[in-house]
Amino acid sequence: VRCIKPNDTKSAVVVDSARVIHQIRYLGLLENVRVRKAGYAHRMPQEAFVRRYKMTNGQTWPVWRGGDGNLGATKAIIANFKLITAAENPREHHVALGRTKIFIAHAQTLVALEQAREYFLRSIVVILQKRLRGWRVRRAYKRMRAALVLQKHWRGFTTRRMYKKYRAAFIISQKYKRYKLTKFFDTIFRLFANVRSDPELGKGYIWPTPPPILAAFVANAQRIHRNWRAYVTISRLSPEDQREIRSKIVADALLTGRREAWKWAPRWPGDHLIMMTENPTFQAYKLALTGLKQELGFKTVLFAGMAFKLSTKGKTDYRAVVVCEKGVLRLDEAYKCNSDMTAIHLLSGVTISQKSDGVIVLGIKGESDHVLCLERAELVPELVTVLVQLVYKMSRKLLTVNVTGNITYNHKALKVLRIEHGPVAAPAFQKTPAGMTLMLPLK
């Protein structure tokens, strides 16, 4: 409320215009009217604005160190709240900046500023409380520090006295343990001094009982000795025998405990059909193989053997199965290739029986599976190992090997193959009411 005196004579009918205009200008009423007419709900000096809301901005708290003084600090606070100034948008804005004052257009803006101020004030109070409590704790710690130093020195004194008391016993115990370890290693060195000249490379050596602290070390040493003995034994073999041993190690990892009665003893020559003792028509096979190598462009036969194949029509075909570095071939009895080679990258998996029969199913991506029964069942581990090694060599991936009692295959649909023994001269696939059955000769 502002009071205007119309005159200095206290008359009710006299109005001194000059006197009234002087009072209006002195009280700032004209400026007030202009501010209200412009639609600003609140105005405040920029210094007071910064002092009141500087804690809402990390740049202005506790002291504004930028340029332009209070005007720069005011602009930083406005930018922090994303307020639109009259200079940016004359028609729709939140605040307007004068030379020394800030004008706030809406009461909601002022409420938002006050709410932010209250929030940050609480945070500041929490920080002050934290600092005060820290100062009190540090002061208490300094008071107790003398007692802590005395306790530390007392504990150090008692510990040193105890160490000196038991030092002799400790040294004796340490020397005895070192003596036991040295004696154990001397025994090991004497035991294995001439291990290279031993025909069995130390297989029958009896290791001395190690001290408890060396139990894990001796277990690792025994494992290293076994690996070394295996390496030396294998290195003394011919290259062909080395390849066969490595293949049988792969087969051991794949089949031991999963397929019954598979043996290491039989030789794995790979190409069984080129051997006169296993194939009476080996000359015809050799001649046909030469032509196939030129026609299909492969160099090495990794496996070859005779098998009974289940055709997609449910018949039994007698075929020669040949595995080369490029894929799998199925040759007829005259060793002619009447079907396309199955590329190695198309193999999706191998399924064999848990029993010692010759059944093997080759899973083919996008095609019907190849259901085979090898004429010699003992060749199944060799064929599986060759396929696994070949797939790993080409793609660095392990071929899936399923060893199961229920053989399934895919001929346009997933089907089950039953295996039975009956009065047949050779393995044969037969259609029965229960599905496809492989009849094997009676043992």
Description:
By secondary structure, the chain is α+β, with helices and mostly antiparallel strands. 44% of the residues lie in helices and 19% in strands. The protein contains 9 helices and 15 strands. It has helices spanning 17-27, 29-37, 46-53, 69-80, 107-191, 215-235, 239-255, 282-296, 380-395, and strands spanning 42-45, 95-97, 101-104, 301-310, 316-324, 327-331, 342-343, 347-353, 359-364, 370-374, 401-404, 407-410, 414-422, 428-432, 435-441. The protein has an 8-stranded mixed sheet with strand order 7-6-5-4-10-9-8-11. Helix 3 crosses helix 4 (69-80) and helix 7 crosses helix 9 (380-395). The model has no long low-confidence stretch (mean pLDDT 90).
Please give the oligomerization state of what you see.
Answer: single chain
Strand order of the largest sheet: 7-6-5-4-10-9-8-11
Secondary-structure element order, N to C: HHEHHEEHHHHEEEEEEEHEEEEE
Strand content: 15-25%
Count helical runs: 9
Low-confidence stretches: none
Number of strands: 15
For the residues shown, what is the average pLDDT? 90
Largest sheet: 8 strands, mixed
Query: Fraction of residues in helices?
Result: 40-55%
Approximate shape: elongated
Radius of gyration: 49 Å
Salient structural properties:
single chain, 443 residues, alpha+beta, 8-stranded mixed sheet, 4-stranded mixed sheet
